[in-house]
Amino acid sequence: MARDIAAKLKSPDARQTKSDVLIANYIERNLAELPFETAKSIAQNVGVSQMTVGRYLRRLGYGGLDELKREMRQSAHRTGWQVKGNFERLRRDAREGKLIAALIQQQIDDLGHIYEITMSPQWNQAIDLLIGAEEVFIAAYQNVRGVAQYFASQLSYARPRVEFVDGLNGTYVEVLDGSVENRCLFLFDVRRFANKARPLAEEARAAGVKVILLTDDACVWAQDVSDVALVMPGARGPLWDGAAITVSLMDLMISHVIVELGDKVNQRVDRLTRLQDVFGDFES
């Protein structure tokens, strides 16, 4: 039954507007927590009006959220995510290993989605851009900034002219000055979205810079501002979303780049290793 609801939420009829996409993605990510939701709470979390949520549910064939909940109750689908907000239950499940097992299962399920991304045309387009660009710039914000810096550091071992840009100069001129043709911006942003992310992507494309956007399924403007959009599963469940899936995707991307570049990577690593020895940053 839960699968039927999820399939309905993925249908084109359920995703006609940006509000539809936001509501559908939110409900799909939080199906297990739906018994604890109200139309008002969904509207607040998504950023639309309560009336919009009601109209959306009626278009899906439900008289309201209660009718959708009744359909959910008829399902045998149960997960550990139904303990949202019950910290006593969370603590008990954590001590008994149930919570960790549920988190691991969620990561396993999400890795299945990551595999689907790696098999998509967008994935190969992103790899081609990361290999073929004269310069690659990496940008990210807030709590995902560190993950993007890791990606920039790893990519710089595989190819030259990779730079993480923090925007502290207030202009992103290193990306946008047009001094070098064939540039690529790898922009990573997830909910909550940074104010600078979309303007940076728009300005980059206007300047002729190819944009790869790595984001999650809460983003409704990904296709509007990027040349290649890679959309990951968003946060689910009562706990904070972690970086494991994101790092996995980035590691797979680095591996693919290395394979495509072949012996050029070995030559670059040899050069970098010699320089590390010269400057003494590592033990011999």
Automatic annotation (TrEMBL):
This is MurR/RpiR family transcriptional regulator. Residues 3-79 form the HTH rpiR-type domain. Gene3D superfamilies: Glucose-6-phosphate isomerase like protein, domain 1, Winged helix-like DNA-binding domain superfamily/Winged helix DNA-binding domain. PANTHER family: GLUCOKINASE, RPIR-FAMILY TRANSCRIPTIONAL REGULATOR.
